[in-house]
Prior knowledge:
Blueprint: H1 2-7, H2 13-32, E1 40-41, H3 58-69, E2 76-77, E3 82-83, H4 88-98, E4 102-106, H5 109-120, E5 125-129, E6 135-136, E7 140-141, H6 142-148, E8 152-156, H7 164-170, E9 175-181, H8 197-206, E10 211-216, H9 234-239, E11 244-248, E12 259-263, H10 265-272, H11 275-280, H12 284-296, H13 303-306, H14 308-314, H15 317-334, E13 339-351, E14 354-369, H16 376-388, E15 394-395, E16 397-399, E17 402-406, H17 413-418
Parallel strand pairs: 1-15, 5-8, 5-9, 9-10, 10-11
Antiparallel strand pairs: 2-3, 4-12, 6-7, 11-12, 13-14, 14-17, 16-17
Helix pairs in contact: 3-12, 4-12
The site of pyridoxal-5'-phosphate has 17 residues, from helix 5 and strand 10.
Amino acid sequence: MQKEVNALAWMSTSDFFEEFCLQISKAVQGQFSSTLIPVFNLTGTVVHTNLGRASLPAEAVESMVTAATHATNLEYDLSSGKRGDRDSHLERAICEMTGAEAATVVNNNAAAVLLVLNTLALNKEVIISRGELVEIGGAFRIPDVMESAHCTLREIGTTNRTHLKDYAAAISDDTGLLMKVHTSNYEIRGFTNSVPESELSKLAQERDIPFVSDLGSGSLVDLRQFNLPYEPTVSDTVEMGADLITFSGDKLLGGPQAGIIVGKRELIERVKSNPLKRALRVDKITLAALLAVINIYKDPDRLESRLPMLADLARPVAEIEKIAARVIVPISERLVEKAVVTMQTCKSQIGSGALPLDLMESRALCITPIAEKGKTDEALQRLSSAFRALPKPVIGRVSDGRLLFDLRCLRDVDEFLGQLDDLSGLD
Length: 427
Ligand SMILES: *Cc1c(COP(=O)(O)O)cnc(C)c1O
């Protein structure tokens, strides 16, 4: 700032004053500008938790703005003029989509699991297969969540094989519920056995205890219609008789961060009367976005064009190749003598613990730094940090001494190319 002010010394008084104000305003803006900014996700992981997961459709954004800038009937029943229930707005739409009796919404799926466990199995045992004790992204680990919810983990079976008789033998007066957790980010292959939801719900019903299924991603539609791998849908799981089902709002649903709980009305009512529900509930803005996204599902034919997450997942390779063809020359020219840029086939993944082994064919820009022997790593670091330092940072992934930009999620090509001139720090 001092430097700029000194440089103003020769100006006329009015110019000086104008320029001085401009510099002050810039300095103040710099001080208060947000640290949370948009980035280009070229990592090849579509639903990337560290990059904020799903991008919302325009309809959801519009609903959020309306909810944020107005008073709303969030918890107000317009027909009776009395206090209403914030879950009522979503409940009908979710139940229609999933065939469930009742539904409620909380801050995220981790909160949904915690709330369900704490409501139905406080100081009791939760029976779960050894093969399903998953850790999702470090902070969410099933054994730890059980402990926080004040439940006792009762693991049964073995890592690779668990049978119905293992569940049956573990049920006692101390049992709070039977639980099945989607293994999300890993798969056990080979000599394996797990018990299908339909059999677990039958057993649970016979022994009069609830059966809870944590789906993790929880798709509302069969993804095979978009040439994507099969992922159990929420309605399949409802049909198989799970008493409560938990899933995320911002994974395969493509909505805002939220955790959705659907299932038997009596159990949902118990969940809603847990004091923790108040602490974990969603605000009107999230609710507005989620409602808009779920409404989009009512028109399945237009889903792919209206839901950005699904558009990215289902983007045809031919379209990704066209994007590659547009960007490869400008990037090569910009990096001339610094790096060699080629196009290569690569695999994108869905991310966020959905279908970890099912990869989608894609195309990447492969940027190999030109450096003296022994200095490749350093050059690679310089290259990736230069792209990360752009006004809209470009996040790729480093593999085998090269920087890869998977182009599946590159939507605004002009914006991407437009900032190449700002690349610096490459020398
Ligand atoms: C992702 C996931 C969670 C946690 O969901 P968040 O939306 O990240 O809170 C819980 N259980 C399973 C099986 C998951 O895949």
